[in-house]
Amino acid sequence: MRARTLLLIAALGIHGLAQAADLRISEAWVRGTVTGQKNSPAYMVFETPRATAIVGASSPRADKVELHEMQMPEGRDLMTMKRVERIEIPPGKPYKLIPLGSYIMLVGLKKGVDAGERIPITLQIEQDGKRSEVVVQAEGRSFYPGK
């Protein structure tokens, strides 16, 4: 049964869409890279009727995967990137991981990310104190917007 569930999750992930219990993940993508670039952010949209958190992530394409958010420190005019332990997903409405907001950072890429390729990302999810994993197949998108 577990193998069948994982296969279903993997099949759904092929199209940038994954589901685990009552969590829906869509529009998963990773920013394409340029020569020599070793890190790249991933973005996606979450929908769930109950409080949920991303508490970790991994990918065979990166040495490690971190959860990040952009913040504007008080008294400064420059946003900074901060690593966080979890990203809270509020219930009842779509929550987007976006540039200049919360996102997932693939660190130490083992090879560049090209437009159109699929990058597997395993998310560790926490709901009601229980942890589970879901695999998302994020689409590589061009480093240059509009191309």
Determine the fraction of residues in helical runs and give it as a percent range: under 10%
Count of helical regions? 1
CATH architecture: Sandwich
* Main CATH class: Mainly Beta
Structural class: mainly beta
Overall outline: globular
Task: Please state roughly what percent of the residues sit in beta strands, choosing from under 5%, 5-15%, 15-25%, 25-35%, 35-45% or over 45%.
Answer: over 45%
Q: Quick one: biggest sheet?
A: 11 strands, mixed
Q: What is the CA-atom radius of gyration, in angstroms? A: 15 Å
Tell how many strands the DSSP assignment holds.
Answer: 11
Short précis:
By secondary structure, the chain is mainly beta. It has 1 helix and 11 strands.
Topology:
Layout lengths: L1 H12 L4 E3 L2 E9 L7 E9 L4 E7 L3 E10 L8 E5 L2 E3 L5 E2 L5 E8 L8 E10 L2 E12 L6
Parallel strand pairs: 2-11
Antiparallel strand pairs: 1-2, 2-3, 3-8, 3-9, 4-7, 4-10, 5-6, 5-9, 10-11
Overview of this protein structure:
- This protein has one domain (2-141): Immunoglobulin-like (Sandwich), CATH 2.60.40.1890.
- It is 8% helix and 53% strand.
- The chain is built from 1 helix and 11 strands; from the N terminus they run H-E-E-E-E-E-E-E-E-E-E-E.
- The chain is mostly beta strands and 147 residues long.
- The radius of gyration is 15 Å and the shape is globular.
- It has one helix spanning 2-13, and strands spanning 18-20, 23-31, 39-47, 52-58, 62-71, 80-84, 87-89, 95-96, 102-109, 118-127, 130-141.
- Strands 1, 2, 3, 4, 5, 6, 7, 8, 9, 10 and 11 form an 11-stranded mixed β-sheet that branches.
- Mean pLDDT is 85; it is low at 1-16.
